[in-house]
Design goal:
By secondary structure, the protein is of the alpha/beta class. It has 10 helices and 10 strands. The protein has one domain: Aldolase class I (TIM Barrel, Alpha-Beta Barrel), CATH 3.20.20.
Amino acid sequence: MTTAIYEPKGRAREYSELACNLYRGCGHQCVYCYAPKATFQDRASFANPEPRKGVIEQLQKDASKFAQTHGTGPVLLCFSTDPYQPINDIHQLTRRAILILHSHCFNVTILTKGGSRAQADFDLYRPGDEFATTLTFVDSAKSLAWEPNAAYPGDRMETLKKAHDMGIRTWVSLEPVIEPAETLEIIRQTHQFIDLYKVGTLNNHPQANKIDWTKFAKDATTLLEELDCRFYIKKDLRRYL
């Protein structure tokens, strides 16, 4: 392993300037996932995740180095995997990573579809840390079809609310957008406990060609403004406004 902390590029950089992937592969098996291709794995191999060899030791070294150039971060966990997929219950890499990053004065941003699994580490959060969740559906049956092993939408939303009630800053990644009506309903059901929405599109999937992105971009921004929400429109969607 050459590095644990890295500087994302492209679409990912709109979410964070620093990130770390603790596992290789992910057990959530989301249909739309780009990560198998990005990490040069077939989907079968990617669906059998394992800890990245030496990641904790390398993270310790990288945290010391990046602290000198990037101050307090934050560092996002994770882009090409999930920090609270089922195997994290066994390996507990995410808790160890948070502790290491905090010891070097980094703030931490968690991005997960693991729902209530993430609550095990809420005791570690400190000012400047953020808890974020990807939400695609309110309908559990649809979520099961597209994200078969991820936490159900209701579980993810309840976990976000709990984080917010604890004083943890929350945000939601509304990307991918698979059914615009579902995405708009997510906003309606969550806006009272979400500090920020990041809204994107759907990439590299045939379903994207069935969506009127101009209409969705307008509907989403109108709704977010009506509800007085803070939001960021990602570049892929912004071009339709």
